[in-house]
Design brief:
Elements (H helix, E strand, L loop, with lengths): L15 H18 L1 H20 L10 H31 L2 H6 L5 H29 L8 H25 L2 H18 L11 H7 L3 H13 L7 H21 L4
Length: 256
Amino acid sequence: MTTVGTFAPKPGAAPLPRMIAAQAALETRMLLRNGEQLLLTVVIPTLLLLLFGSVDIVDTGAGKAVDFLAPGILALAVMSTAFTGQAIATGFERRYGVLKRLASSPLPRWGLMTAKTASVLVTEVLQVVLLTVIAYALGWSPHGDPLSVLLLLVLGTAAFSGLGLLMAGTLKAEATLAAANLVFLLLLVGGGVIVPLDKFPAGAQDVLALLPITALSDGLRDVLQHGAGMPVGDLAVLVVWAVVGLAAAGRFFRWE
């Protein structure tokens, strides 16, 4: 005979929002405790802003160097977290079977991806606050509409997240590590982050302008440095990269 009683805690899965929030908190703690990711997401952008913002190394045109550099470093911070850091972390989670085990939990796969995205956004908020404080200390004088800045950052995050998950879900972990760091370095140099785009040959400028890092850094610079309105062209480039990257990641991502 089975005795009917009250079980505490009640057996069964927790509500979906609570599971996603718990996983997002765990992902954020893991990201901030990882030395390599912390170097990419916080230390490198901070050092670049301090170095190039206080010493005239690169000719950024008229005005204070920090006014040119701060928007580009914010774009770099988004790329380092949403693309490079996420690609490397997810690639090794896939290799070690972590994703396979998590996929068998009550948390659905889309819920896991949502938690990872939330973790990226939390980290980016911390980055933006830190870099903004440093830039103000260096004499930064931003202008423009905060809504345009927010839209650029969100679309940039979506674009880089899609590309990072696509890389992590299709390549081996070691290949992801090498490729993500290589892309980070190439886009740092050629994406208008530190070196103005007009320093490159005219033909190269047309190609570089189509990169997500260039669209994000130029869009932020137009708004924050020049006080421009909504940068429609740069937003369109980011939308295309976001749609293509996320769709490809959803189609080709392998959990094992």
